[in-house]
Amino acid sequence: MAWVKSEYAGEFAVLATWLVGLAPWSVSLFEIEGVTVVGLRFLPFRFQFIFGATLPGERPFLWAWQVAAFQESEPLALAGTLGVAALVGFLCPLGLSLYYYAAEDRVEAVLPMDPVRLFGGLLGLVGVLTLAASGLFITSFPGITVPIGALVALVFAYLLLTVDRA
Fold first, then answer.
1. Are 38 and 151 in contact (CB under 8 A)?
2. Cα–Cα separations (whole angstroms), residue 126 to 45, 46, 75, 91
3. Structurally, how many domains does the chain consist of?
4. What pTM was estimated for this model as a whole?
5. Rounded to whole angstroms, how far apart are CA atoms 158 and 106?
6. Contact 86, 134 (CB under 8 A)
7. Phi-psi domain of 33 (left: phi exceeds 0; alpha: psi -120 through 50; beta: other)
8. How far apart are CA 83 and CA 137, in angstroms?
9. Cα gap 35→159, rounded to integer Å
10. Which domain holds residue 123?
11. Order of strands across the sheet with 144-146?
12. Tell me: the pLDDT tens digits for 103-154?
């Protein structure tokens, strides 16, 4: 059974790319001594909400490239670096999706490979990088981290790589 019909594969590739860009790649939650922290990591930025206290030097909004420098431990700094690598990797399918949306026939004529498979491979790379970063947060960050967007990217990558393009 095909999840996506061949004639809609291009549109699905564009939509999948945009959804990966909008979804948080991980969500973290922890509570310690009456202070609750919720962290939402999107590809270009991180929001962190602290409830129950005001911490000195806390920055609730950071761009992706600022996260690694803000982390105190080596595994979390590496997770921030992987997040930046995922952002850089995502810029290629994002730019391609905008062009593909506007000129699907032209893109298919110019690329030496199927653009839907290319989207699948690139989103798979983003998914692997964000899943690796999430794994570092899971092992080094107190509380719970759920790799929502990382899994979404990998599912979309699988669907795009396995779509029947007759």
1. no
2. 15, 16, 19, 10
3. 1
4. 0.89
5. 25
6. no
7. left
8. 11
9. 40
10. 6-23+67-162
11. 61-63, 45-51, 35-41, 26-32, 144-146
12. 988 988 998 999 999 999 999 999 999 999 999 989 987 889 999 999 999 9
